Automatic annotation (TrEMBL):
Gene: traK
Segments traversing the membrane: 12-35
Keywords (A to Z) from UniProt: Membrane, Transmembrane, Transmembrane helix
Name of the protein this chain belongs to: Conjugative transposon protein TraK
Length: 206
């Protein structure tokens, strides 16, 4: 009888040990599955799908700090193209300037107000003058915040009888703001200043 009880007790210990092993294995498998699932979800969230010409293209999201120089340069280029591209049309001028002023603070607004007060834009319209800009390069210093920039560009001032070419060098700083439809890069230009704007050459139009 005692031998039978001993065998039952031994069998019970074996069954209990095996059950604990099974439970531990299930817990480990569940934890591993959850870990891999969260990793897969995080990886999928870093992917962006763009629909172009009826095809889904896969892109990858990244931290903003990885793209600061690229986005900052494009922000500066966009501002300059809007602010300095002018045609003899009051509506076009107002549209471009309004878009440009969303990208900069009151330092750019003061320049616009001074030019307007000096009848610069009226002269553009009355003289049928067009002004275009070509960005040569934009340097961004991301070592310190706000990020300092310099923009090197050339202007073409197209009159009825001639084309005047000018060099343009501007500088300023960029600080972070919220992204919006009017400011997709999330930067704001501060302390905008024209360092140099001088004539390079003039040629007669044929």
């Amino acid at each position: 009888m005692f031998t039978r009880m001993k065998n039952i007790d031994t069998a019970f210990r074996y069954v209990r040990g095996f059950t604990m092993l099974v439970i531990a294995g299930c817990v480990i498998i569940c934890c591993y599955t959850l870990y891999r699932s969260f990793g897969s979800v995080a990886q999928m969230q870093d992917r962006v799908y763009i629909l172009a010409n009826g095809k889904a293209l896969e892109a990858y999201a990244s931290e903003r700090k990885d793209n600061v120089p690229v986005e900052a340069r494009d922000h500066v280029k966009t501002f300059h193209k809007l602010f300095f591209t002018l045609d003899p049309d009051d509506k076009v001028i107002k549209t471009n300037i309004t878009k440009a002023l969303y990208l900069a603070d009151d330092s750019a607004k003061r320049i616009y107000d001074d030019l307007k007060e000096n009848n610069f834009y009226s002269g553009i319209i009355s003289g049928n003058i067009s002004q275009t800009i070509q960005i040569d390069s934009v340097s961004i210093d991301v070592r310190e915040y706000p990020y300092r920039f310099k923009c090197y560009a050339r202007q073409n001032i197209i009159r009825t009888t001639s084309i005047l070419k000018r060099s343009l060098l501007t500088e300023g700083a960029l600080r972070n703001v919220s992204r919006s439809d009017n400011n997709p890069h999330g930067f704001l230009i501060e302390r905008f200043n024209t360092v140099e704007n001088k004539d390079l050459s003039a040629e007669a139009r044929k």
